[in-house]
């Protein structure tokens, strides 16, 4: 860590993401086999470029508002910078550097030609009118448009940025640059967007976990009959929940920043109709607590205010954190293990703290195959979103639109390959106790890192 911390401001989230990657590389045989890769790690840790700018805009009362805008162009060895924009009051350089760093290796794992980047603003969309959101997006793009382009840097959505914001941002770019090009992904389907892009992160996560379950049980089990705890209730959580239900699992929780909705009866599940209601509610930027008190939910679900679901579950098989970073702490990981969770996979970026990952990884090694706890890290398990963004870029380049089935099949293939890459790389580069499952966090980190390091070396970024 020394080269990271001596001359830099404190960046806790970025240091955590770095530590997670570096520790898995250190604990593998990678540096024994290729000691020169330590230099690659030192170089890849420094963003190619960071941009920070002022955004001023006018609220509905005619008052002046000012926010901080950012874009971290972290690594372009595999393709144009690619990664979402986050609008949330907590956004700062440490958070965007952690997200951009994760994105480099995640994008590498998709097998598509995308570099890594991330951006956003400390703007809070909650409580803002559509008019204010449009004005903010336009002001934000006024500066961002100078730094992006279809072959330079292609942003997309993240927390606080979805279809509506992408539309406003795209329109602003087009007007400011006088250029219609695939500069953003997550666009509307009639103006260059890809089918399945909104669903892709959640669907991809469930496809990935289905492979985990099948591998761990020698194809004896699937999602069928499994109790699945999900946190969050945004885009990722919604489509993960719908796919779990389609695959025969039951969804026992959803949450937002103010509390958790938990199904009371053990055999019961949140239904697709309820998820559509939540979807509508989110568009109106409302909280789950309002829905929890309506007839549709009150009878079957309890609402736990100011809490994440993990410590409030009696029996759970699969846990899918789909809200935000550090949403599973060490004690919450232990509570999940206690409640019977066997598979934990992140729909969110860095959903688990380092302490939580340590608990999951220790339980992976302590058990026989078939009884282990298995952790799927976000950069592998949630890569379906950016993968379909890559497919949207491919369609834009061809000026074609593929069918939903074509895109979904490509997504399934990418998630399967990403899973197998993690498994095979872990087997080659880590020492595993006899019969225990391979570490997906180590395998995915090593595979993503090696691919990027090799491209950087070819391009003269290190030697
Ligand atoms: N924000 C998403 C992620 O964390 C998607 C990024 C993209 O599609 O560019 O991967």
From TrEMBL:
InterPro entries: Aminoacid_DH-like_N_sf, Glu/Leu/Phe/Val/Trp_DH, Glu/Leu/Phe/Val/Trp_DH_C, Glu/Leu/Phe/Val/Trp_DH_dimer, Glu/Leu/Phe/Val_DH_AS, Glu_DH, Glu_Leu_Phe_Val_DH, NAD(P)-bd_dom_sf. Keywords: NAD, NADP, Nucleotide-binding, Oxidoreductase. The record marks 158 as: Important for catalysis. It catalyses: L-glutamate + NADP(+) + H2O = 2-oxoglutarate + NH4(+) + NADPH + H(+). SMART domains: ELFV_dehydrog. Substrate binds at residues 82, 103, 106, 157, 389. Residues 194-460 form the Glutamate/phenylalanine/leucine/valine/L-tryptophan dehydrogenase C-terminal domain. GO terms for cellular component: cytosol. NAD(+) binds at residues 201, 235. It comes from the Eukaryota. Pfam families: ELFV_dehydrog, ELFV_dehydrog_N. The keyword NADP applies. CDD domains: NAD_bind_2_Glu_DH. The keyword Ribosomal protein does not apply. The active site is at residue 118. One of its GO terms (biological process) is glutamate biosynthetic process. One of its GO terms (molecular function) is glutamate dehydrogenase (NADP+) activity. Homohexamer. Belongs to the Glu/Leu/Phe/Val dehydrogenases family. PANTHER family: NADP-SPECIFIC GLUTAMATE DEHYDROGENASE 1-RELATED. This is Glutamate dehydrogenase.
